[in-house]
């Protein structure tokens, strides 16, 4: 299935009437699709006939009260939890993720960032990014040499993207909480993911760090599918993207934040307890 999107013109695009004018872009293809997915833990249905899709590129916020199934959704997509029923398909060829191991799913291009940063504290920012690089080793030294030069370039690129280009020689343990979060996002980027699942990126950040994180996620979503699970509505508002509200393991509402927060059922779920 595809969906039409509005986008900014590409650099150098003279057909769209100037830099500020949005234009209709190629239709966005579905990258990930969950269909009729259910999973129970000891008879309790944590995910209940869940169906939804993520396009590429796209920025999507997934919200919902405690216990709505947000973490379990990510566990299913990354292969940590296997659903009892339903389909989870991926990419142009709609391959099923359900039979793949967690490491195979990661190699397919699905990266997950947990809430708590897990960078290697004793290593430098550069070393952290180097360890994360997707770096298949071939038998020929000459090729290895070329790869390491390319790797160094890629590290610079990623560091620039996450705003840590000036911090590459620093020990990761000395970074601020926000910088560690960006480094970890960079470590995901180093593996060239197509889909990034990001769990509560704004938690514990200063206002300035939150702003940087908003900008970073929005920029990443120009080229990747980015799914942000977040409790903080102000942060979600700033992401300015489509929102999926989960409740009791199903989609309760979907659309802009204004649209979903005007939904009486959503209000009931959030405030009626
Ligand atoms: N391994 C498990 N065993 C038993 N119950 C589980 C397991 N994992 C999740 N659950 C239950 O499934 C439901 C959904 O949990 P989940 O962690 O996905 O919700 P969530 O939306 O991420 O919540 P929160 O916002 O609090 O993190 C909860 O009721 C939880 O207690």
From TrEMBL:
What keywords are assigned to this protein? ATP-binding, Nucleotide-binding, Transport
Q: Does the keyword Ribonucleoprotein apply?
A: no
The residue ranges of the ABC transporter domain are 32-273
Domain of life per record: Bacteria
Disordered: where is this region? 1-24
Instruction: Give GO cellular component annotations, separated by semicolons.
Output: plasma membrane
Q: Which InterPro entries match?
A: AAA+_ATPase, ABC_AA/LPS_Transport, ABC_transporter-like_ATP-bd, ABC_transptr_urea_ATP-bd_UrtD, BCA_ABC_TP_C, P-loop_NTPase
Question: Which NCBIfam families does this UniProt record tie to the protein?
Answer: urea_trans_UrtD
Entry protein name: Arginine transport ATP-binding protein ArtM
Q: Which organism is it from?
A: Roseivivax jejudonensis
